[in-house]
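Below is a filled-in request sheet from our internal design queue. Each sheet records the structural input a requester submitted and the sequence that came back. We keep these sheets so that new team members can see what a complete request looks like end to end.

REQUESTER: design group, bay 2
PRIORITY: normal
MODE: inverse folding
CHAIN LENGTH: 125
BACKBONE (tokenized):
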């Protein structure tokens, strides 16, 4: 599976952005999918995850109520709608696929075996 994230950019605090991640691969619809972010010098952190059917979602406490993850299996895509952005949301955002436990929305970065190139999100105050 190859993943490519897009949609990042420079926005002001309070603005919204929608990240997209397009995937190749026949088994996409059976994979769990997640979004993670990383600031230079810090560990990659969990943001949101969704299971194969979209029936289960999981969010980091820092983004609950502001971010929403969704997927479209027909388009082999996963999305992250980010609202009420804050300067602390600034990071490189990565999408990832979990091929082994797609029936749950996992937050453990170690369970994801496919990663896309990140997209930079910068939120100015």
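RETURNED SEQUENCE:
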């Amino acid at each position: 599976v190859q993943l490519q994230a897009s949609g990042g950019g420079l926005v002001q605090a309070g603005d919204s952005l929608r990240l997209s991640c397009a995937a190749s691969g026949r088994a996409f619809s059976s994979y769990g999918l997640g979004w993670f972010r990383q600031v230079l010098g810090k560990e990659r952190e969990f943001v949101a995850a969704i299971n194969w059917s979209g029936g289960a979602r999981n969010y980091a406490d820092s983004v609950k109520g502001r971010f929403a993850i969704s997927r479209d299996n027909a388009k082999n895509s996963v999305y992250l709608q980010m609202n009420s952005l804050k300067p602390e949301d600034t990071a490189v955002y990565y999408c990832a696929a979990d091929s082994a436990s797609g029936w749950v929305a996992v937050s453990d970065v170690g369970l994801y075996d496919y990663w896309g190139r990140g997209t930079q999100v910068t939120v100015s105050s």
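SHEET NOTES:
- The longest strand covers residues 17-24.
- Residues 23 and 67 are 21 Å apart (CA to CA).
FILED BY: M.R.
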